[in-house]
Task: structure prediction
Amino acid sequence: MAAGTDTLISEYVPYTPAAPLRPYVALFSGYREAGVAPALHRGLPSPYLTVIFTLDDPLVMAAHPRPDQAPGTFQTLIGGLHSSPALIAHDGRQSGIQLAVTPLGARALLDMPASELAHIDVHGTEVLGSLAGHIQDGLRTIPDWPSRFAFLEAVLAQRLGAAAAPAGIGAEIGYAWQRLLDSGGTVSVAELAAETGWSDRHLRGRFRAETGLGPKEAARVIRFDQTRRRLDRRGAAGRPLDLAGLASSAGYFDQAHMDREFRQLAGCPPTTWLAEG
Result:
């Protein structure tokens, strides 16, 4: 059947993993679209690494966060933390399961620090080896979302259990990361350094070595991610956007500051991003 002529399907199913997995994976997202108009979507910066197992057609990356990485297609994809948008193309069909992996999960599930994947996307087999294909093949044989999520949980739990102890990221870096999340990206590097007992320079170096982002850059990404999610909820509910109020409550200097951050991190202003969704 020609692209765009399928029966209309539009599914998005979020799932929070069981408690033992949550320090490593914050969310599973199942998605399937067919019969829709071809589109180009923005892959936005967030506080999570991205792992995608496609179910039908491969994932087409029209542009990666790092400009010098060539476009390509992926059956499975693993992407690191980044501070500029990616572009994903589809011809009217797309389906898969996306995992939001924490920096702690990078070490525990991917067996590497998140910094090794920062700003790039790689094929799942480059990190997970044959396990990437095993997971994808298993997911493709399962007919419904709950069963797919259960299968994925079981495989990931087994991978965690296979290690004597999941690799950690260090108490100070773990604390600094969680503090940034809890503050919505508004806590300063000076405050983080004081609270960890490290110098600013040492904190910046260790933080970047583990996550691939400096603490100030991570704060920008976290603040942006939480802001755009609040904006999305307002738009979906038909509420006034109140961009000036949103900017103030999110810790931006003013609406112009928020607009600049959206242009840099999303590639467009807030209202354009919302209209594209």
Observations:
- Residues 139 and 147 are 9 Å apart (CA to CA).
- The first strand starts at residue 9 and ends at 15.
- The longest helix spans residues 215-237.
